[in-house]
Design brief:
There is one protein chain. The chain is an all-alpha fold and 373 residues long. It is built from 16 helices and two strands. A two-stranded antiparallel ribbon has the order 1-2. The radius of gyration is 21 Å and the shape is globular.
Length: 373
């Protein structure tokens, strides 16, 4: 079949290796709780592969042509959290529960992909005047709207930062003049006091300040407890780890050991070598996405690939940064590795979009294509 010949089987193989490794680690840290977690994760992986091929076969141009509907979908999907949202352990109202699914859905996970498509399509329409105020200001307003909606409804600063990073990356590689970035940095600096006062919760402020001022949590048992447990797990593992199923903290004392802190759990059981494997396989996925994007002659498709790559890269860096105590705890999953059906499904959908772009690369190149710097 054409889909197997022209689709990106290398990308799929990398994703499956990462996901299977994640399932092994999830079982290693939750084996005393039964098989629920690996059953859900395995089912999500199988469904994800089906969605991968479905989106490989689907022409993303059809979806991109409905950007207004996609915008309304994003708004409505996130707004559903106001009525049916479930509050997580971090205090964020980020999840929806459906009786027919064995896991909760995080609307922002889906909306990240649709936002990338909306932004890429809009930028492709404006590509001949991409740095004009008539182009940059509406694009910025769209980003601020979705970010503001997420913060207002769910208070999920981590997810909001992903959207900002996606926007900045796509604007840069899309050819937006650097003066706009300098102007944006100035605007952020001017607004920083107001953001700190009105947009960031008190517990989030403590997490940020505690990284620079240990006196905020002198015993390390409150604000810094999760970070300290993560660092202890990594220290316990050393180079080669304590062995699969043998971690002291990853078997009990490490919070979110199968979700946000699975990198630290891996470090304790498989050591620095296990952590290095995770880093290499995930960076290989990002590199493959960038390769497909750079090979595409189409402006919009290139932006979609680089937007997806930036989304994954930001989550990888922030998740690992949290585990290493370099970044405040903000609750971002490690793509393909952390437990979470919603994350797995949307990750495979995103990879299917990239595979579909590789399958259909031969669009007419715009004579006015604006290359990045």
């Amino acid at each position: 079949m054409e889909i197997f010949k022209k689709g990106d089987m290398i990308l799929l193989s990398l994703c499956l290796i990462a996901t299977v490794f994640g399932i092994v680690m999830i079982y290693a840290v939750t084996s005393d709780e039964g098989t629920h977690y690996i059953t859900v994760q395995t089912g999500a992986m199988i469904a994800g592969v089906v969605l991968y091929f479905a989106f490989t076969a689907f022409d993303i141009d059809i979806l991109a042509g409905q950007r207004t509907l996609l915008f309304l979908f994003n708004t409505a999907f996130i707004a559903m959290l106001l009525i049916w949202g479930i509050q997580g352990s971090t205090g964020n109202r980020s999840w929806l529960s459906f009786p027919f699914l064995p896991f909760n859905i995080q609307p922002a996970e889906v909306c990240k992909i649709t936002y990338i498509i909306i932004l890429a399509k809009t930028m492709s329409i404006h590509q001949n005047r991409i740095s004009s105020p008539r182009s940059v200001l509406p694009l910025t307003a769209n980003m601020l709207f979705i970010v503001g909606l997420i913060i207002f409804i769910s208070s999920d600063t981590g997810v909001a930062l992903i959207f900002i990073f996606i926007f900045l990356t796509m604007a840069y590689v899309g050819g937006v003049n650097l003066w706009w970035f300098l102007g944006g940095a100035g605007a952020i600096a001017a607004a920083a006091p107001y953001i700190w006062i009105y947009a960031i919760r008190s517990d989030q402020k403590k997490r940020i300040l505690a990284l620079f001022d240990p006196s905020i949590d002198p015993t390390g048992q409150n604000t810094l407890w999760q970070t300290n447990q993560s660092l202890k797990a990594l220290q316990n593992g050393g180079i080669s780890g304590m062995g699969l199923f043998n971690g002291n903290l990853s078997e009990g004392g490490l919070p979110a050991k199968h979700t946000d802190m699975i990198f630290s759990a891996t470090g304790e059981q498989l050591g620095m070598l296990g952590c290095l494997f995770i880093l290499l396989i995930l960076l290989a996925i990002v590199a493959r996405i960038i390769y497909v994007g750079m090979k595409s002659p189409d402006y919009m498709n290139r932006l979609i690939c680089l937007g997806i790559a930036s989304m994954l890269l930001f989550q990888i860096l922030i998740n690992i940064g949290v585990c290493l105590g370099l970044v405040p705890v903000i609750g971002l999953a490690l793509p393909f590795i952390s437990y979470g059906g919603s994350s797995i499904l949307t990750s495979f959908i995103a990879m299917g979009v990239v595979s579909g772009i590789k399958m259909r690369p031969s669009r007419e190149i715009s004579a006015h294509y604006i290359r990045p710097y």
